[in-house]
Amino acid sequence: MESVIPLPAMPSLSVQGTSAVFPVRRIYCVGRNYADHAREMGADPHREPPFFFGKPHDTVVPGGGEVAYPPATSNLHHEVELVVALSKGGRDIPASEAQACIFGYAVGIDLTRRDLQAASKEKGQPWDTAKGFDQSAPVAALSPAAKVGHPESGAIWLTVNGVEKQRGDLSQMIWSVPEVIAHLSGFVTLAPGDLIFTGTPAGVGPLLRGDRVRCGIEGLEALEIVVI
User: Fold this and answer.
1) 109 phi, psi to nearest 5 deg
2) Residue 102 and residue 25: Cα distance in Å, rounded?
3) Rounded to the nearest 5°, which phi and psi values hold at 151?
4) What angle do CA 214, 57, 139 make, to 5 degrees?
5) Is 95 helix (H, G, I), strand (E, B) or coil?
6) SS3 letters for 21-67?
7) Where does the Fumarylacetoacetase-like C-terminal domain lie (predicted)?
8) What is the DSSP string of 158-217?
9) CA distance linking residue 157 with residue 63, whole number of Å
10) Whole-prediction pTM value?
11) pLDDT tens digits, residue range 189-220?
12) What CA–CA distance (Å, rounded) separates 71 from 63?
């Protein structure tokens, strides 16, 4: 069948230690999944049901590197997160079966136009322009779960120009990874190639042109970007 426009390239992530790639289908994100971050955003950190938003799959920046400061904002923020990559999917997946759907894990940054997000919140509007802009989802190489297991604890951190800005532990998540998958699969049919950003600890803050950002999670490959 002939396409009336050139077929767009499929975004993909590298897989650590191999020449294989992981094609990215969809990107889902969990909001306010660490109590300390919920507090700093002015929200109640009690264990309410998780909520989700998305980013287009072509916002992914495989392996990090240079990221352009986006237009229409003067308050670009960093949010370091554990990213989960799915090799299986389905609907209404029980939390007890969720780990069987996971291919691997990576470090990611949910870049956010905070001023646009605040304006959207105030007006009760969607967050799409605040979260889903070009290059808003840098992600390091994936570490297969077959090699690193399923991390439930471990340090998660981010530095800007060598100064630590964020530090937490995966054990501080309000909703665990299996619980996140279970809840999300109640709203949509998950599928191989889906990525899930699982929330960020406290310390989110602004980035400027020229900033060098380095972040990591214990046991996973670190991620570095430079804002240009």
Assistant:
1) -125, 125
2) 14
3) -65, 125
4) 15
5) helix
6) EEECCCEEEEECCEHHHHHHCCCCCCCCCCEEEEECHHHEEECCEEE
7) 27-227
8) EEETTEEEEEEEGGGBSS-HHHHHHHHTTTS-B-TT-EEE----S--EE--TT-EEEEEE
9) 17
10) 0.96
11) 999 999 999 999 999 999 999 999 999 999 99
12) 23
pLDDT tens column, 151-173: 999 999 999 999 999 999 999 99
Q: Using the structure block, give the residue that is written with the tokens 């077929």.
A: 7
Give the pair of three-digit tokens for residue 73.
């904002």
How many residues in the chain? 228
Cα–Cα nearest to 70, from 56, 57, 62, 59: 59
**Sign of the dihedral through C-alpha 198, 100, 64, 131:** negative
If you ran DSSP here, which 8-state letter would residue 8 be given?
P
Distance of CA 9 to the CA centre of its chain: 21
Give the CATH number of domain 12-227: 3.90.850.10
- Do 53 and 29 touch, CB atoms closer than 8 A? yes
Burial class of residue 69 in the structure, from the number of CB atoms within 10 Å of its CB (0-12 exposed, 13-18 middle, 19+ buried): middle
Domains of the chain: which residue ranges?
12-227
Three-class SS state of 77: strand
CA 77 to mean position of chain CA atoms? 13
Q: Which is nearest to 202 in space by CA: 45, 74, 15, 34?
A: 34
CA–CA gap between residue 33 and residue 39 (Å, rounded): 11
Residue 58: exposure state from Cβ atoms within 10 A (0-12, 13-18, ≥19): middle
The per-residue pLDDT for 144 is 98
CA angle 45, 51, 53 (to 5 degrees): 130
